[in-house]
Amino acid sequence: LIERMRVYGETIFAEMTRLATETGSVNLGQGFPDTDGPRPLLEAASRNILEGVNQYPPGPGRPELRRAVSRYRSRHYGIDLDPDTEVYITVGATAGIAAALLALVEQGDEVIVFEPMYDSYAAMVTLAGGVRRPVTLRPDPATGRFVFDPDELRAAVGPRTRMVLVNSPHNPTGTVFTAQELEEIAAVCREHDLIAFTDEVYEFLTFDGRPHVPLATLPGMRERTVSVSSVGKMFAVTGWKTGWVMGPEPLVTAVRTVNQFLTFSANGALQLAIADAIDNEGEWVAAQRAALQGKRDRLAAGLAETGFEVGVSEGTYFVMADIRPLGYTSGVDIARALPREAGVAAVPAQVFYDREKEGEHLLRFAFCKRDEVLDEAVARLTAWH
Ligand code: PMP
Ligand code: GLN
């Protein structure tokens, strides 16, 4: 293994899911739903396979899906994307993130990234030869939301800064950035001529009526923003690994140049089915959002009763919980002990930080599970504590 990748061992999701399986734990670690996506989507995909949609799709993706992506970004946000040059289909958002960082970050470039950060960002910035400049999200004393300090953001910019990486709705904190928070980021990008990279995979999973605002909709941002999203969270099919990169033609072309040699293309039969589902997304996606909001409330209440200090989750599959009121300090130790001791798996948030101390006392719990599964987890945690 090349030297700069040696610090990246097994991903925390793989480790915790293995531990959960070995111990028969309720797995609230890795974020995946335990119910299926919309029936018509599953049937369409099966039909496509049986009817012979089984050869390479075009490298940039099936035109039907690129057009459907362009339509939904226009319908929801008023963003107009040329499906031929400004939308590109990848093997999950993960491949889009990888291709974008490899395509846009030069050796030695700095990438500003809000921490805690999704694990692939750190590894891919490193693989691209870039350097991370973390800006830490911390709970706002007034609201409990994880927020950044605009001065810390500004102080992170230097002569080698190339990109700001933004994930909203944010994994693992559950923060959904407001238009005002995004404007702080946009102003920095405009002033210093930076590329923005936005990971919007949880765009349809926001709660309490909170809107998702794509950074690209802010003044002066469309031409400098590359975004990724994916089918996994939109339709509760995380194993389908089909995502899309969106942005201005020069940036998407750069991503395409790299990705054609990473995967060449993504799964064709699924792409065709997903295109249809996106065009008919309205009701199912709205119902999923409402159900998840209820699950968030259910798990948050249960965790609070157990004694955790529970964070504010405005979106995603996740809620953060502070272990200090229970008398513990190391989230890594607790996360490793919980499956055996309590029969519940969670993720230690520390692994999402460069400044590890900042997240030492936090666990991330996933609430994208059936109600009875959430109740069982809470019952086990109560018995354990
Ligand atoms: N970004 C974030 C913030 C995620 O939580 C995930 C996990 N699903 C991904 C990207 C990866 O998405 P995909 O499964 O489409 O590769
Ligand atoms: N996105 C999921 C999470 O944050 C897991 C993805 C993965 O296993 N790499 O839990």
UniProtKB/TrEMBL annotation:
Any Pfam family: Aminotran_1_2
GO MF annotation terms: transaminase activity
Cofactor(s) this protein requires: pyridoxal 5'-phosphate
Entry keywords, A to Z: Aminotransferase, Pyridoxal phosphate, Transferase
NCBIfam families: PRK07777.1 (NF005855)
Domain Aminotransferase class I/classII large span(s) in chain numbering: 26-381
Gene3D superfamilies named in the record: Aspartate Aminotransferase, domain 1, Type I PLP-dependent aspartate aminotransferase-like (Major domain)
Enzyme class (EC, first level): transferase
EC number(s) stated in the UniProt entry for this protein: 2.6.1.-
Designated name of the protein: Pyridoxal phosphate-dependent aminotransferase
